[in-house]
Design brief:
The complex is a heterodimer of chains A (about 325) and B (about 350).
Chain A (H helix, E strand, L loop, with lengths): L2 H31 L7 H19 L2 H25 L4 H24 L16 E2 L4 H4 L5 H9 L2 E2 H19 L1 H11 L1 H6 L4 H27 L11 H11 L4 H21 L3 E2 L3 E2 L2 H19 L18
Antiparallel strand pairs in A: 1-2, 3-4
Chain B lengths: L3 H23 L2 H4 L5 E3 L10 H16 L4 E3 L6 H11 L5 E4 L4 H10 L5 E4 L8 E6 L1 H15 L4 E8 L2 H17 L4 E8 L8 H13 L4 E5 L3 H11 L3 E6 L10 E7 L1 H13 L6 E5 L6 E3 L11 H16 L7 H4 L5
Parallel strand pairs in B: 1-2, 1-3, 3-4, 4-5, 5-11, 6-7, 6-8, 8-9, 9-10
Antiparallel strand pairs in B: 10-12
Helix pairs in contact in B: 3-10, 4-5, 6-7, 6-11, 8-9
Classes of the chains: A mainly alpha (about 325), B alpha/beta (about 350).
Chain lengths: ~325, ~350
């Protein structure tokens, strides 16, 4: 297998691995732009993965599964909103509580309903989103470089993959080109000013956490009904936190968020690929080094190369109306 | 002395309790010896389509044949194993069968505390006079499925995806490689491990990616020895029209027509035999090692995969099986020297 085929294979893998990160990081972007920190991305993703797998299995429909996933995630988003916006609780504590709650409840319910060690039964093809073969794939497959890239990396992904890439410019447009987006960002920087203008801070922040729930729902559903064909306990495996790291790394901007997520996906794919392989001059490198690589890179990038990452000014601070 | 009366009362109570305890202890064990077998599963749930489900099958078979009820417990966290084992032992369950090397230290502790209770542990050795340790020659079963993989592969490349990177799993991979080499001396065997922590047993996403990666490199048969992670491997193989090999239980039904065969470990027999031996009062402690000759490991053929296994493959694998039993072929055990011959 020559180097180009290897590159194509790694690129394809990077894209598959970065999709949940992109959805979750965009979710965090909406929430945090409005001044609500969201540590609960992980939990919402996991809840959505669980709900999506359960419903996709019982109803044998990927679409209903996706809806259920989004529903579960939005519901948790509202819980986060209720505790941190309405009741002005600590946003970090509320998010961590959501993560713990979901990690436990999915195991209990999964075990009670299906008895397979918190796993849901394997989905049939009707319960999953099938890969979409883009038009012209077969026609260009023979073309060198571009053909192979088109056939193996760009075409043949699932609907949610294309949706994730569509969500990036859409998020940018919403945040930077609409009135809603302007107000959303304003409420994250200076909620007092927004309030003075006669706009409800709470309602804006609620809409932000609903958007976050929606996007997290896609991330979770992708995990359980696209990438795999069942829910497994703790299957989000820290992706919510990696998404948060990507969000900070990208300085809370939609397009850099996408590139940061792709980078993390690429590192993950590379670590899968490099296992047990001979590296020139060094020989076979222990697997553990490659498995640690994404985390080492994350630390390094966050510590050294990002420069100053300034979060929204009012982030994490509950808004109290002056009287 | 203040509180003298209450102290006296306490004394009375203690005497009473001791008397009761003496009475209880004096009931001859035969009266209470309605056999009460117990079973503690590995992490991963009873119906994991793998080792736990096999153990469950063995216990059910015993129940159906003898009418003796058994109690089982599914630990969902690391700390629950010892709790469950101790709980069963303290409530008089006997014998207690424990499926998984994860509970080795738990059995070590509890078995020493309850010397009259018989314990069985699978996949690990606990050297106590009341413990039967059952090991399998996974390398022999893996050799057989490796041989089938080598014959079924059209590209001359086969893959292996392991769960946690531990010697036990390397043992599977090493036997598999030897089998594949026996079918085709030039074959390339790609090996990947999912991780180094116990989450490696339940990461089907990574399992699927590793499988896809191997497929991209030309592999067309993949053996997964990775618990629930393996389901991701079988899924990836099915999605890409390649062949896969299941592990522990017969997993041929998971994707009919795509799972070439399964390397089966007869944990069901271990559980059944433990209960049956105890019932016949023929329970023996000590180490048992079950290989192809003892019927402890093997490959699975059923309606789901019979079209994938050609008569030549059947002939070759049966011959290999006979050779292993007769000692003509010895499969190297990775765990004997922590290395695999190339």
């Amino acid at each position: 297998m020559d180097y180009f085929d290897i590159l194509i294979s790694i690129l394809g893998s990077s894209i598959r691995l970065s999709i949940p990160l992109i959805f979750a990081a965009l979710a965090g972007l909406f929430s945090e732009s409005a001044g609500v920190f969201d540590i609960g991305l992980e939990g919402k993703m996991l809840a959505s993965a669980f709900a999506a797998a359960c419903i996709a299995y019982t109803a044998d429909s990927a679409w209903l599964g996706l809806l259920a996933g989004i529903g579960a995630s939005v519901a948790l988003g509202l819980v986060h909103g209720f505790s941190s916006i309405t009741n002005r609780g600590n946003q970090i504590v509320s998010g961590v509580a959501i993560n713990f709650f979901v990690s436990g409840i999915t195991i209990v319910l999964g075990q009670a309903w299906f008895g397979q060690g918190a796993r849901t039964p394997q989905l049939t093809s009707a319960g999953r989103f099938a890969p979409i073969i883009l038009p012209g794939t077969d026609a260009v497959r023979g073309v060198p470089v571009i053909g192979s890239l088109y056939a193996n990396v760009i075409s043949g992904n699932s609907l949610l993959t294309y949706l994730a890439f569509a969500a990036v410019p859409l998020s940018w447009w919403i945040l930077y080109r609409t009135r809603f987006g302007l107000r959303l960002r304003a409420v994250g920087e200076n909620p007092g000013a927004v309030d003075t203008a006669g706009i409800s801070v709470s309602w804006l922040r609620y809409r932000a956490v609903i958007c976050a729930g929606l996007l997290c729902g896609f991330a979770g559903a992708y995990l359980s009904i696209v990438q795999s064909a069942a829910f497994i306990q703790d299957m989000s495996a820290g992706k919510g936190y990696i998404a948060l790291a990507a969000l900070i790394f990208a300085k809370w901007k939609p397009v850099p968020v996408m590139f940061a997520c792709l980078l993390f996906g690429f590192l993950d794919a590379l670590s899968n690929f490099m296992q047990g392989r001979q590296v020139p001059l060094i020989g076979e490198v222990p697997v553990q080094i490659f498995q640690a690589l994404p985390y080492v890179f994350t630390c390094g990038l966050l510590a050294g190369f990002v420069g100053v990452a300034t979060p929204p000014k009012a982030g994490g601070i509950p808004y109290v109306k002056e009287r | 002395m203040v509180g003298g009366r209450s102290a006296a009362k306490k004394f009375e109570a203690i005497v009473g309790a001791v008397a009761l305890a003496t009475v209880a202890a004096s009931i001859p064990p035969t009266l209470a010896a309605e056999m009460k077998p117990a079973l503690v599963y590995a992490n991963g749930g009873k119906f994991d389509k793998s080792m736990n489900e096999a153990a469950y099958g063995g216990a059910e078979k015993f129940k159906n044949e003898t009418g003796i009820e058994y109690r089982d417990f599914e630990p969902t966290a690391e700390a629950q194993g010892e709790q469950a084992i101790r709980n069963f032992a303290s409530r008089g369950f006997n014998p207690v069968v424990v499926v998984s090397f994860s509970w080795t230290s738990a059995v070590q502790k509890v078995a020493a505390e309850y010397p009259d209770t018989k314990f069985v542990i699978v996949d690990a050795v606990v050297d106590l006079p009341n413990v039967r340790s059952v090991l399998y020659k996974e390398q022999e079963g893996s050799y057989l499925v490796g041989l089938l993989a080598g014959m079924a592969s059209k590209t001359g490349k086969v893959g292996f995806v392991g769960g946690m990177d531990i010697p036990l799993i390397r043992k599977f991979g090493c036997g598999y490689k030897q089998g594949a080499r026996a079918a085709n001396a030039d074959i390339k065997v790609l090996q990947n491990m999912t991780g180094t922590t116990r989450t490696a047993w339940r990461d089907p996403v990574r399992g699927g990616e590793l499988a896809k990666n191997q497929i991209d490199q030309g592999v067309d048969v993949i053996f997964a020895a990775a618990g629930a992670t393996g389901l991701g491997v079988l899924q990836a193989a099915a999605d890409n029209g390649k062949l896969s090999i299941g592990v522990d239980s017969n997993q041929n039904f998971v994707h009919p027509g795509s799972v070439l065969t399964s390397m089966i470990k007869r944990v069901d027999l271990t559980v059944y035999n433990a209960y049956a031996d105890f019932r016949k009062e023929a329970f023996t402690a000590g180490k048992q090692t079950l290989g192809v000759a003892e019927g402890g490991v093997g490959y699975a053929v059923d309606d789901n995969n019979k079209n994938l296994i050609t008569p030549e493959m059947t002939a070759a694998v049966e011959k290999a099986k006979a050779n292993i039993i007769s000692g003509v072929v010895t499969v190297h055990d990775y765990m004997s020297d922590n290395s695999c011959p190339d």
